[in-house]
Amino acid sequence: MQLPRARSIVPAQLPHLPPEIWDQILDVATYVPYSLAPEIMERSCLIGHPYNSECRAALWSALLTKGTIVRVCKQWWYIAIRHLYRAIYIRDARDVLSLRNTLEKYADGNGTVAGVEPLGLWTQRVDIVFDDTSTVDEESLAGIFGFLPNLAVFSGTFSSTDSITCLQPTVIALLDCAPSLRVFDWSISDDNALEPRIVRRFEALVKDLPQLHTLNFPSLLQLADGTITNSTLTSVHTLCLRDLVREVRWREEEDRIRLNLRELVLYAPPRWQELSWRGFFRHYGPYFTSVQLRAISDPGLIPVYLPVVNQMCPNLRRLTLFVPSFSDIPIWGTPASGIPPIEYLGLSVRRLQCRSMYETLFSCLAALKEELPTLHVVQLLDRQTVEDLLKYNLPLVSHAVEQGLIGDAFRLVDHDGNLLSDSLSPAYSSDMELAVTLAGTSSFLSNPSSIAHAHPALHDLQYSRQAGELNDVLVFTVPSASDPAVKQEVVQVLQGLEGIIRVVELVPRRRAKRDEF
């Protein structure tokens, strides 16, 4: 019996493109917006929990893509390895030991691939997310940073117990990255306070970070004597805080130190300690031009904080509110004297809103426009909220434009800085487009417009064009004036007509733009 001949394997031939072109392709394929410096410093609303809950999944997905790319062939390994190690994601003890060994081998010139420079030179960001069952060797964890001389972003989420064991060696090791570190985000996953001795070691680290721009450390104020030192915050632009000690004392001799402090991200705590916060704002308030109030758990604290912010921050121009719902925004009901004369207002809600909540939003905007002549920009910071508003509640935006509520002088923008009023222009038409695939025997091929007479629900359906060179795929539009329920009925009726094989809604891609405000 003669065995069948094995099919010869033809090696894959990559397109002959310069390495620089492949480098750009891989960069686009694994790009995560606002994850690296300097982009991340443009979107301080992503520091801390918002980034951890929404963007780390994208980082992990990008890492898996990079891991697949470097295994394609040796040529791609050389091109993609810098992308693989640009952002490091650590989840457990195995990640720590494996990463430490790999970085050490390549730093010593003993890596698997000979002649490659140390991999840690490419690393710009490190994320650490331990689960509750992880037992990590803190010395191995700290040892990683000795191989990362160009690290710019450090982001970690720890319990208070993990912080006690990991913070001290990590802080000492991060001194090797001091010249390049721009963002330090150490989030605590519980409400327990850190011990003063741990915080004291951290303060020593911060003093030696000459380029530090963003600092998120919830227990920064719980120092041994309850004091924030100006020398600690010399270079910091954005400061994220969660709580204050009850009695804060200021060192008057440090008032001569010039600070770069401009933005405060305040996690509204369950305890309002007015004397401590007034002391804090009296000392640092004049520096702040931007304040974020994150009151997801207790939005009732916002009207308590706002008067103090208004009184103590004379140079405030930007205010951002994080609340569960648009109905929890009290600023429109606050007396005019208690609202800071801001130019920019950012709004972030943590869950999807019903139509009545969007109506509340536009009522708030009307009140703000009346009471705050200085306010020019309102930004919705959540992508899902913007998509929900434009897809299901676009008539509210249309009405606001028609009434002159939003426009060039008073702008409502999305998470990427695009004007929502642009969604009403032809470039962002709200008409629903449907690609309809027809059978070869369908009578609609010769007379596409006749489909509007096939059923009463289709009387508004308009023939638009042929889909490219596909003779059997036609594009129809449902006017924007139609109710979403009517549009859904149109789709269902089309799917039930004889001679129609498939109906697909075409969703236009919107141009993304960086936050300009």
- Helical content class: 25-40%
Stretches where pLDDT is under 50 for at least 5 consecutive residues are 221-227, 509-517
Per DSSP, the total helix count is: 14
Number of strands: 16
Strand neighbour order, sheet with most strands: 1-2-3-4-5-6-7-8-9-10-11-12
Percent range for β-strand residues = 15-25%
Largest sheet: 12 strands, parallel
Shape: flat
Structural class: alpha/beta
Q: If you had to describe this structure to a student in words, what would you say it looks like?
A:
This protein is of the alpha/beta class and 517 residues long. Helix content is 32%, strand content 16%. The protein contains 14 helices and 16 strands. The protein has a twelve-stranded parallel sheet, with helices on both faces. Strands 14-15-13-16 form a four-stranded antiparallel sheet, with helices on one face. β1, α5 and β2 form a beta-alpha-beta unit. The radius of gyration is 28 Å and the shape is flat.
